[in-house]
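WARN no homologs supplied; continuing
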Amino acid sequence: MNVESHFKGWAKPGPVPPGARLTSLSSLKGGEGRGEEANTSGKADAAISAAAKNPSPQPSPRLGGERGKNSAVLEAGAPLVVEPHETLDAISGHFRLFQLRDGHRFSTDDILTAWYGTSWCPTARTALDLGSGLGTVGMICAWRLPGATFVTVEAQRDSVMLARKSARYNGLTERYDIREGDFRDAGILHADEKFDLITGSPPYFPLGDGVESEHPQKLACRFELRGTIADYCTTAAKHLAAGGFFACVFPHEAVQLARVVAGAKAAGLVIVRKRPVVFREGDPALVGLFGLMRAGDLPEWFRGQTWTEPELVIRMRDGKIHPEYSAVKLAIGFPP
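OK structure emitted
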């Protein structure tokens, strides 16, 4: 079956999801997204085929800008429709992501979190995504880990409803449990639930530390309305399986880096490895990718060390995509 895709032979796109097989392009009325990371243009393309265009990475809008309505319960048999305020955007392979046209848009930070976690925990059978938002991180992980089962936790109803639509489109409903709530609340995650891989793309700043968006989805993405990096570490430590891996992204400048270190130590985690991310060659690293494990799962001599990897550069000085980031994109089902 010929299904329109942004893939032109660069990599295997994986199985064709039911949303692409069973939903005609003409039935996906009202939204036609470009699949761009952190796309804030608000401009729509003229046809649903534009969802297959090449993503172009942007620096994290959570560091200086903004990052994305559907409040009705999504019935299991309801038709998948791209509402006028939504877009349906390409992510990994044939997978697509429902997003708000003028709300939260997935970013390079999300993509890198999914890549880092699945790269350093490639045999995970169970996975948890904390503060999962639209589901970008979890769904890229699900594309890379086709045999794994997932639990995701998100507090915002609008984001949960979009993620559920995406899960249905991508054929993930049998192995993808989307829970609505604050992951810090009792009952959202049971004490005996353990996961090989946990991912998180936490908000970066306390309230008052920057310009606050009036859009609730964007506000919660950038500012700590429901938990800090320390809360993410605490929850991850409670729910990691023996030998499990927690991957997250957070600002890399000194004050913010100290918050990651402190949160990890308080939770009994060790930062096993970290990788600074440079969005433009020659600039300082704005964010870092962190891989953490429980101290008790590691040899005692290993617990006091962190391997700092070479910087990952997103764009070269001339603005072109760096060759390594092109290779990263291929690994997660994106065109380079």
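Residues 29-36, 38-74 have pLDDT under 50 and may be disordered.
OK
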